[in-house]
Amino acid sequence: MTNPPLLGCIADDFTGATDLANMLVRGGMRTVQSIGIPSREVAAGIDADAIVIALKSRTTPAAEAVTQSLAALAWLREQGCEQIFFKYCSTFDSTAAGNIGQVSEALLAALGSDFTLACPAFPENGRTIFRGHLFVQDQLLSESGMQHHPLTPMSDANLVRVLQAQTGLNVGLLRYDSIAQGVEQVRARIGELRAQGVGIAIADALSNEDLYTLGTACADLPLLTGGSGLALGLPENFRRAGKLRNLDAAQLTPVPGGEVVLAGSASLATNGQVAAWLEAARPALRIDPLALAAGAPIVAQALAFARAHKETVLIYATCSPEEVKVVQQQLGAERAGSLVEHAFGEIAEGLRQGGVRRFVIAGGETSGAVVQALGVHLLRIGAQIDPGVPATVSSTAEPLALALKSGNFGGRDFFDKALKQLARTGEAQ
């Protein structure tokens, strides 16, 4: 590496990693995202202020998530990172057993630290925390639709209670009234919580200003955990210390070639984005998991469909929560998800061989399957498309432009916005 990175980040899924990387680029940090721990050859070419390692640990067994996360931490420390950030979803979801608490606890122990914050708030996307309760827009998390998530349902909005069930550490609350009084009061309250034996504190946040306050107050903590919003204030900490160079963090290499939209998420936001595409009478093909399970040649049909259209096509498995339940009842949740992810990976690779170079991908699990199938190991992060979703370009021999979208992110017109942004990745932003 030309210069040691300042911030090392561990994300529990692929789209969450790009969400965090997007936030850091907005703050002026040149950021790369690695798909898993970089090989020695890949690492040698990294020159960045921040490195985000994308794992696929949100829905794995807790012990496996801990092992992967500790391996990522060890690698980041070897590179010289001064602070570590553990990124999870702004809806605080993992599995019923809970990976957030176990991973946070393990990272704290490995760093020899006794305290960290947990703050998934992302006000720009409607995620706020008040008195320890997570809201999605005007609804409690448990009433927002997340209670029906097919893989990680969230039926409790009280994050202190949710997190306490996942860790042996004492969980406390850093309340909004302390944060409203500024950086010094936050530091004082953290001191009080530590004296009380609290190891992890849920932090309230109602606005970006709160997140900047938290970021500044926690500049010296070895570990921070949260959604991408908590990273808002971190670049300025390094800038104040004279460690961050003033370079264009968002400039990317242009990527010519064909384009496609692949949507696997069943979230409300992605359902709306698929509906907008269909309402515009644009070409789209739906993947049926039951047909996949029955052995139908879905991948070949999808590739033939894409070849038959000169326009950009949408290939999707997105459906309503009710339809998801029907499929899972017949196939089982794990098999249904695995079938669709594998199919999307094969479709993406077939499209790449046919000349597609720009991919808009909706859904964390879908994004993970596609980038792995495409052999993508490292992404340079560019300008924001929508809050939480940047344009990216791969470091592969033949570069690919990708927009990796968390299922619940993006406006109804996201697919169009993303395609336009990827088509002009090389332009100054």
Structure in a nutshell:
The protein has 429 residues and is α/β, with parallel strands linked by helices. The chain has helices at 14-26, 40-44, 62-78, 100-111, 159-164, 176-179, 183-195, 208-217, 234-240, 268-279, 289-293, 298-307, 321-331, 333-353, 364-373, 414-423, and strands spanning 7-11, 31-35, 50-54, 83-87, 116-119, 127-130, 133-136, 139-140, 170-174, 198-203, 223-226, 258-263, 284-286, 314-316, 356-362, 378-386, 389-394, 401-405.
Low-confidence stretches: none
Please write the CATH class name of the largest domain: Alpha Beta
CATH architecture of the largest domain: 3-Layer(aba) Sandwich
Report the helical percentage. Answer: 25-40%
Q: Which structural class do the helices and strands define?
A: alpha/beta
Adjacency order of strands in the biggest sheet: 9-10-5-11-4-1-3-2-16-17-18-15-12-14-13
